[in-house]
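Notes from the pairing session

We agreed to fold both candidates in a single pass and log them together. This is the raw record for the first candidate, unedited. Please don't reformat it; downstream parsing expects exactly this layout.

Candidate A
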Amino acid sequence: MSQHINIALVGNPNSGKSSLFNLLTGLNQKVGNFPGVTVDKKTGQFRISETLTSTLIDLPGTYSLYPKRADEWVAYKVLLQQDKDIVPDMVLLVADASNLKRNLLFCSQIIDLKIPVVMVLTMMDLAHQKGTQIDINGLERELGVPVIAANPRKNKGVAPLKKIIEQTVAAQFISPRPFIDTNELAEQSIAEVKELVPKISDYKALHFLINHEHFSLPPALQHDIESVEVKNNFNPTKTQAEEIMSRYSRIKHIMQTTVVEADPLRKALLTEKLDTVFLHRKWGYVILLGVLFLLFQSVFWIAQYPMDGIEWAFGKITGFVSGILPDTWWADLIVNGALAGLSGIFVFIPQIMILFGLITLLEDTGYMARISFLTDKLMRKVGLNGKSVMPMISGFACAVPAVMTARNIENRKERLLTIMVTPLMSCSARLPVYTILISLVIPSELYFGVLSLQGLVMMGLYLLGTVMALVVSYVMKFFINIKEKSFFILELPVYRSPRWKNAVTTMIEKAKIFVFDAGKVIMVISLLLWALSSFGPPQKMDAVKAKYDLLKKQDPANEAILDKQQQSEQLENSFAGIAGKAIEPAIRPLGFDWKIGIALITSFAAREVFVGTMATLYSVGEDADNNSSTLRQKMAAAVMPDGSKVYTLATGLSLMIFYVFAMQCMSTLAVVKRETRSWKWPIIQLIYMTCLAWLSSWLVYSIF
């Protein structure tokens, strides 16, 4: 008869826990969020034997059962069986053999919860390099739980691990003795709590005393436990300190009897030698800039080909579908609404996969922790921390995956600040807008024979977004009222070779999250934008149609040109066009006309849509659709009703600045909503970025 169990996978950060999870589950994984918090909930299925299967829950890394951060609270509540959605039948505890003393604290606490435990020692190879020898059988006797060595990176130890798990499940094996005598810490209080909550261990009763306010307990039970605390003058802080001291006293004994450590004068490991270079006061930052430049450029270079392929494929599909469907509104909905929306989703996937793949490789090598360490000082001054630098740098490629990477930041306030300012980094979608506007209003001049004025303006736009992100973060930190303390405790892992399989798994995970979560919102808004651009008041739309039907009869030779003009005029009279006219008074002080207003509205789907909208509005002929110079000539020749040019230097600069600061990206708003679990923050983000864009554009237009 087949049996299924839930196994909680726990361990310290950088202990090899995620590697073991990926090895055991492969691609048979699901990624979501724990209820109420934006913390990754990774679960996977794996078969232990012919009659035993399991769901493996990868809990966030934590150093002890005294949580400080949101992700540590998630792991803590699952282990204390206070999460109604996840009740583990046993615990698979991963410990780093090269840092065994530190890992044993968490291990000893898990043992005292009286849950079946199997301890997996990883990084034995690194322990051997450090000259550390571990008596696994002796360690097993001291702890009273099964201990096995495994190397997830080299696919070693899986079969023995499955056998041990099966034996532990069959025997419901729990350590026969506690690691420490918890009763010595608060005997009377623990006894009274065990009367209130039967069948819990002494150590679990102690945690009910310390953290019952954070548990989902009946009000009467909460009151009774609180009464026990008051009656016995229970001091949580003092008790916790005494517990830790007692545990380390026992751990010291275990280390002396089961572990032989290397001579303290041993030769420095390769990691320590590399850190003298990578963490150097000067060269460390030079290397960091080089690594970030290569990361940033690689996302552009590598993603460009699959993105072009996706656009080409959707172009072919769109052409084929439009060719076989009748000329009806629902066919237009399928072609220009649904297919365009799907294209807007899938075209982001290469950037998301490549960015997360490269970041995973950096994490595997151990360099990601060094990036956070080097940048923490600057980031902390503006309310962020060192872990904020990767989402911000990633924002140069695309804000969508960049916002998703911010979930690595434990502190809620710093994570929220990072999410709120990352869209200010100039993403690749802004590039087509910058390119056409710079070519329109900035002269093609060279300084010193090599420095292009247009290139300098482009670089200035990117730098402006970066500086403003830091400024906004500094200001916003005073308004986000989250009092959670920020502890930037960072363990620098050893340098290791990257695992390509792990990178591929992560890439597929992140692509799924984007397509199935953010993609739903993107599709809805795409269809809404199609409707606004395709329909308008019946009288106006019928008048336009009647006008051009007559013109085509009178001049059939120019029907193609008239079709383009009709399309442009229909857009002007659509709901989107009416909206453009409606916002014209608000954007006129920035130097924009109603056509630019329409582009601002339609490019909300994606900033690069600005160029396509301009092409339609200025009725570029079919033969010139891909000829940017023709579009530039049309835009350069555009005039206001009074005969003045539309695209002057002032208007061009104003529009560029607007696109530097404006949100103009529904995909980003969808992802921000998902990551913050609220519409409050994306709405605030949209408002502050729009106001910042308007004021900055008005200032630039006024000056020039």
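Candidate B (folded immediately after A)
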Amino acid sequence: MTDLPAPVQVPLMLLSRLRGAFDTAVASLAERCAAGGTQVDAALFDKYQVEAYELAWTCADLLAAETYLREVAPQAAAVEAALAAVFAVDAISASLPRLETVYLALGLDLGALRAMSAAPEWAALRQASGTGEALAAAGARLVRHANEGGQTWAVVPLDEPLQMARASFHRFAMDVVAPQAAAIHRHDLTVPEPLIDSLRQMGVFGLSIPERLGGIAPDDRDDTQMMVVVTEALSEGSLGAAGSLITRPEILSRALLVGGTLAQQQHWLPKIAAGQPLCAIAITEPDAGSDVASLQLKASPVPGGWRLDGAKTWCTFAGKAGLLMVLARTDADRNLGYKGLSVLLVEKPPTEAHAFDHQQSDGGRLRGRAIPTIGYRGMHSYEVSFEAWFVPDDHVIGEATGLGKGFYFTMAGMMGGRLQTAARACGVMWAALRAALAYSADRQVFGAPLNKYPLTLAKLARMAARLAACRHLTYAIARVMDSGGGRVEASLVKLLACRSAEWLTREALQLHGGMGYAEETDVSRYFVDARVLSIFEGAEETLALKVIARGLVEAALSHP
């Protein structure tokens, strides 16, 4: 660590100490949840849900702070180094009491945590980067850079093709998407076909599909970074009108690439890449939520295929979509849990209406109704009901060999979808922060611009620091995924970035005062849009407990 620039050495040293205390807590929890064995006992694990939840959040904060500091180390004299230290103070300040709570519950010695809380290095870091004066200074530097039209913070190194893609899609988002976003939101419209057609021509629906199958991804590897670049840029223009259009083809494409037959891949992937048809994902059910193992939508075998009976909910874009990815129970034995699930591809006529009712010639019926929501408008989320709806055998992903494997295919798709959701959160945060910077420069309060006051500057500094930390972590995990890993990390950054977007847009709205609460102001849309991010693609509680914390515990048991 001594070869790192001085401004990042101290926070990284403190984070290293905290990481050791975190590892101790995970190891202790693992021991309690395995009851002397090497496998996690679900009932024992559930007894410690609160502690597991706190450890998941601690893991997210630590990894984000560590990643941010290491990536800005080469430019430690820039404004970004100051913001990285600001985030490190926030991360450590949040993690210490969380770990203390966990230590108390697990009966661990608090000595190490108390020693760190009293460490002179921690006091010095807070003095340098966490006081009102320090935060205001960081905010003033941020404002100065914004006024000069430069950006030397939240900068992620990108190769030339990624830089060109970001510039192109950001320009499209600002010039084409953003001018339509307010009307789509306020009038609860469906994303206009001309906008979708422009995105078709730009190839966004084929970002995860190899070139040999009609997409734009390389044939020999994933290009998750490109997906993140495009998603983030479009989401800055609008989450509901552009940034989320890629998620559904991302999930379905990955599921087909993992589990589909060659014939299915060759038939469906070129169509999905072309955006014809558009896709929707039907997983959640009214009584199951994020508990995938409890799904009950019934797929009964009939000559030549399957008959679907039951309901799905929160099926985003189900109206406009011509193809639904439906996770259904193909094995009547509910004791099998997630092992009795398969993925069926359901074709339907697309519509821009907020309700639909389709019938098959043999009497099958598929109905849907858009659920009114406070935000995330444009695509609409539907309640969908199936009544004796027929699906051919060759529309089961993997066909006969795919029966009972639907959970695994879906999770393969969801891993990319969760990272993409982190990128969506970053795009919304960009939009909110830029709005806050602009408004606080123009707004006069008590005879001076709002951004001349220390509290405003402190808020702006902490907002910028959190956005930058989430952005660095999102791109870092995209690189991990391109190397074949990242399952737990994708959930972790989704957890952090989505909650951060909720907090940051709240602060941006607050800085707008009464105007922030007006529907005519864009920042009010950012706020209500951000609120959904912690719910879909895996609610934060489910990700924290069932993916992140459980993954940590399993890793501790396998490598004691």
